[in-house]
TrEMBL record:
Annotated protein name in UniProt: Beta-glucosidase
Homology family: Belongs to the glycosyl hydrolase 1 family.
Gene Ontology molecular function, alphabetical: beta-glucosidase activity
Biological processes annotated in GO: carbohydrate metabolic process
One Pfam family linked to the record: Glyco_hydro_1
Recorded superkingdom: Eukaryota
Membrane-spanning residues: none
UniProt source species: Daucus carota subsp. sativus (Carrot)
Amino acid sequence: MRWPLLFLVLYLLALADGQLEFSPESTELDTGGLSRDSFPKDFIYGTATSAYQVEGAAHQDGRGDSIWDVFLRQPGLEVNNASGEVTVDQYHRYKEDIDLMAKLNFDAYRFSISWSRIFPNGTGKVNWKGVAYYDRLINYMLQKGMFINYLTFVSPFCITPYANLNHYDLPQALQERYNGWLGRQVVKDFADYADFCFKMYGDRVKNWFTFNEPRVVAALGYDNGYFAPSRCSQPYGNCTAGDSGTEPYVAAHNLILCHASAVQRYREKYQKSQKGRIGILLDFVWYEPLTRGKSDEYAAQRARDFHLGWFLHPIVYGEYPKTMQNIVKDRLPKFTKEEVNIVKGSADVIGINQYTAFYMQHVTVNKSMPPGYQNDWQVGFVYEKNGVPIGPKAYSYWLYEVPWGLYKAIMYVKERYGNPTMILAENGMDQPGNVTIPDGLKDTQRVNYYRSYIQQLKKTVDEGANVIGYFAWSLLDNFEWRLGYTSRFGITFVDFKTLKRTPKMSAYWFQKMLSRKH
Ligand SMILES: *[C@@H]1O[C@H](CO)[C@@H](O)[C@H](O)[C@H]1NC(C)=O
Ligand SMILES: *[C@@H]1O[C@H](CO)[C@@H](O)[C@H](O)[C@H]1NC(C)=O
Ligand SMILES: *[C@@H]1O[C@H](CO)[C@@H](O)[C@H](O)[C@H]1NC(C)=O
Ligand SMILES: *[C@@H]1O[C@H](CO)[C@@H](O)[C@H](O)[C@H]1NC(C)=O
Ligand SMILES: *[C@@H]1O[C@H](CO)[C@@H](O)[C@H](O)[C@H]1NC(C)=O
């Protein structure tokens, strides 16, 4: 008699814990016809974060500095002198965060591994306390299903780990040793680090990415210097050193070789026994020609080549896009025959991070400007047409809500790159950091954003695009690079003083849309 009673009490407690603050019938949670049935049966839904943005514990358990720790230590550089030293402290609160993912019905979590937490000096001595952290994180994700099953009798499931090896945060030691991504030695050092992660975690992690947004690393790190390591030349930015005309291309070339070398290690040593999949995460803005004139069409195509093609073209076809070769000429490095062999075909899956779209127009090159990556595009960015903005704005200056841009971006990858296996690996929008509870929880604009973008994603799948998953950015409000804590991308509100997490309306929207009960 007592056991059934105990189960009943536990069951009711579990139900109460999952109680919606918003009624599922509420029109604000309208899923717009979306449900788990909208996509193929094994379609994966998750949320994404990155190590520097959520972990905190920057000086704990032997972690070494990354280039972002050092970059943000410049007084007065970052808004409110913010940094990721504590951020949302996932290093200590990962269980609470994974519990939340399970409660919201997500299937997967994309996190990144901090290279300098594993190898504080970039290479050499292993920091075993850092290694142990990712073991705890991964193991807890995989146990999650059993726990839920025991309490609530729903069918067993777990949070599937999607591990990314690098999200902007290069160990500072390597920056000092050989200028980081500019030094060819980084290719071997990255492959060794990747190899170590496959060996340590590959028995449980079956989904790997080498890099998140290497284009952002190369462009913002070396063309305008807005991101670490902040190298550039005049007039493209105010840096102490750099060359905007050459360094972005050298950094990107080494990033591609790092990626390819890591994939080669995985395929040769681990893939057969571990049976996983490896790929890369690329950011892609949809570039729509401002007018139907030929010159704007070409401008938009150049933009797509310089943005996505810079990385995806070598990975699929073994060379940089012809537009880039013609414009950048001998400032663009070349792949040797041996390099082409490891670069071409070096992804089982392509992650596309897609948030927004811009209009593109042709501009005449100013021949007296010194060379620079962005300048090489020979385009003008336009955000409205006939006085009508391309879409409603989020908080970030670059983020317009343009759901049809996602549709066009995915269909473009499908058509131009042979319909590779794709994951929509980041998508979301931000609110200003100063919103508070309860107003900040009613993120109606974000609900609309997710609904309309996922409807467009469904359309691409219905039309044959090989998209196998979707990840929202982000699970939580967190540290947003150059905006610090003044931008909130989370579906969960974080009080940055107490670090208390409170799901927003958009979190409940996902919970409802991803419900497994019919
Ligand atoms: C940031 O740090 C600089 C240098 O310590 C200081 O002058 C400035 O007031 C700080 N800014 C804020 C918003 O705290
Ligand atoms: C870091 O690595 C470099 C290069 O291998 C080495 O010279 C240096 O002694 C190492 N530093 C520490 C603290 O291990
Ligand atoms: C460089 O600094 C000067 C002076 O502060 C400023 O006017 C200019 O806009 C800056 N240039 C860039 C590209 O940030
Ligand atoms: C072309 O670039 C040079 C060098 O930056 C600058 O001085 C000049 O004003 C530019 N001309 C035009 C038409 O923008
Ligand atoms: C919050 O920030 C936004 C954008 O920076 C500003 O327009 C608004 O006035 C601020 N609101 C409050 C309550 O401070």
